User: Fold this.
Amino acid sequence: MEIPAEMVKELRQRTGIGVMECREALQESQGDIDKAIAILRKKGYARAKEKMSRETTQGLVQSYIHLDGKLGVLVEVNCESDFVARNEEFRELVKNIAMQIAAASPRFVSAEEIPPAELEEEREIIRAQLKDMQKPPQIIEKIVEGKLKKFYEEVCLLQQPYIRDDKITVQQLIASYIAKIGENIRVRRFARFELGKD
Assistant:
């Protein structure tokens, strides 16, 4: 199927991904732009995974103040080069991450940061809630793991549904930018301040 240049241009504007990749995705989807975007996201995510191990020493510290100064966020997001740190798309991502932290109030960047004692305490709370269920221990453990996943979505920034598109997580959002920009991107740390709250 011959793909018109205007269609390739539109897909490129919507995704920020290269001309060749856009043309291939449109051919694979038989000219369906939405399907092509899904194809690119899948391929981009695979490509992004390869880049996620690369070192990040540049980046940006972003602040976000909300509710007339009653809520504030500071976040450090790293990338590989100063060139990308100055890139408008990267800056937009960092701002969106700061807004995510303000709105969704995560406590950790990822599940790996949760102290083991706190994680075990959460497991015990869930087990206690399930103690009256007449189910085998292995089924109870599966339910515990399922509820822990929900816990991660509440307290871990990367596992949270993205506030502007709850079909993806913050981790998937970052992966799409890694695929688009071509560099590893990592949220290093953040602090969230809310007036009157510890």
User: Anything to note?
Assistant: The chain has three domains: 5-51, 58-109+156-194, 115-154.
